[in-house]
Amino acid sequence: MRDYLEFEKPLREIEEKIEKLAAAGSPKHSVQEELRKLKTRLAQEEVELYSKITPWQRTQLARHAQRPSVLDYVNSFCRDFQELHGDRAFADDRAIVGGFARFNDQSIMIIGHQKGRTLKERMERNFGMPNPEGYRKALRLMRLAEKFRRPIITFIDTPGAYPGIGAEERGQAEAIARNLFVMSRLAVPIISVVIGEGGSGGALALGVADRVLMLEHSIYSVISPEGCAAILWDDPAKVPDAAATLKMTAEDLYKLGVIDEVIPEPAGGAHRDPDTAAKRIAKSFTTHLSHLMDLTPEQLLATRDEKYRKMGVVLELTVQKI
């Protein structure tokens, strides 16, 4: 069963009509002609609807409960995935998954946020919000990948790091900062892809990469639209305005030079056609890995350093007095 968002209601009505006619199985020409017209109308409505969605509507798509997760993608285009557990200090955080896998017959390290699908799974995964031990597990796996000279691919999909008291007591801020520091100096190729929601430092802790990619309907921001609206306006009605102001969509971030590629999604989002979405991600990975694997460790570090130093550059103009 597909979950429809509020703005997708026009599509729901058409799809329900198509399902009823198809279930009837009538061979009559008039019925088949009506089916054809409805499918044509549906395709037109999809193009029109998704070509003009707002940043807030895109945020809703990024958070869609049926959106494919890191494990869905790994099972789609990787093989021999061997999940590794624990940070060797405190516990195994199930909000972060990672391990070695083979992609295009090449051994790689996969690391990503995992939200879960059902309510039970989401509770077990803490809704994709890692504790410090999750980031320390990720760091352990990154260092392991560097030791064996394996490229790293990270999947970002989290509303943010878990802000609980226990997480703060165990060093949440330090764990995230440590990941940023170490990732900036890892001498192996790193590719990150935002597949859903990329929230604050909880996302950035897996995002210091040589190539940062985003699915078309994903978001990446320092704060959620709800948090921004609460701080700036103290008004929940301002959430859509906050989403637009934050410039958090893939299109906005590509224009700003924060990310390197926007990966197109199937009509209606990755959850409508997970196989096609996975193929497009795999194709992008293949292209970027091919280029990065040709670079020496010294070249990797130099280009990564240059990439992040260029972000947020401000040109200061001097006005001469006449």
Question: What would a concise description of this structure say?
Answer:
With 322 residues, this protein is of the alpha/beta class.
Question: How would you characterize the overall build of this protein?
Answer:
With 322 residues, this protein is α/β, with parallel strands linked by helices. It has two domains: 6-52; 59-309, 2-enoyl-CoA Hydratase, Chain A, domain 1. Helix content is 48%, strand content 15%. The protein has 14 helices and eight strands. It has helices spanning 9-24, 29-50, 55-62, 70-77, 119-124, 132-147, 165-169, 172-185, 200-204, 225-232, 239-245, 250-255, 274-292, 297-309; strands at residues 79-83, 96-103, 106-113, 152-158, 190-199, 211-215, 219-221, 261-263. Strands 1, 2, 3, 4, 5, 6, 7 and 8 form an eight-stranded mixed sheet that branches. Helix 4 crosses helix 13 (274-292), helix 6 packs parallel to helix 8 (172-185) and helix 10 crosses helix 11 (239-245). It is globular, with a radius of gyration of 22 Å. It starts with 8 loop residues before the first helix and ends in a 13-residue tail after the last helix.
